[in-house]
Amino acid sequence: MSKHYDEVFKRDAVALLESGRPLKKLAAELGVCAVSLRGWRDRYAKTLTKAAPQSLEAAQMEVRQLRQEVADLRRQREILKKTLGILAEPPCSDTSASKP
Fold first, then answer.
1. pLDDT tens-digit profile of 18-63?
2. Interacting residues of 43 by C-beta distance below 8 A, sequence separation 6+
3. What is the rounded CA–CA span in Å between residue 16 and residue 4?
């Protein structure tokens, strides 16, 4: 049974390959045949080199956005931890209010 991969997967695999990863190792990691990956490289490598600067800028922008989101989520987590700590404390017993 042969697997069919969409064009996006093939282009992403070739982009990973062009980042300097060994072909056979990358093929094994992706679960594809090395011959298929080599064919994709031959077919898509020329078009990817033209689009690389835009892809790099887009990737850098995405990394900045994701880092900001991670920082926001960490702040939210710390606030939630503090809130849970406050709520988990036993209520103060006011001895003067309980006396008749």
1. 888 888 999 999 999 999 999 988 888 766 555 555 678 888 888 9
2. 10
3. 19
Helix 34-88 vs helix 7-18: crossing angle, to nearest 10: 90
48 CB neighbour count, 10 Å cutoff: 16
User: CB-based contacts of 30: which residues, under 8 Å, 6+ apart?
Assistant: 13, 16, 37
Q: Quick one: 15 exposed, middle or buried, by C-beta within 10 A (0-12, 13-18, 19+)? A: middle
Mapped onto helix, strand or coil, the DSSP state of residue 13 is helix
- Kindly report the pTM of this predicted structure: 0.45
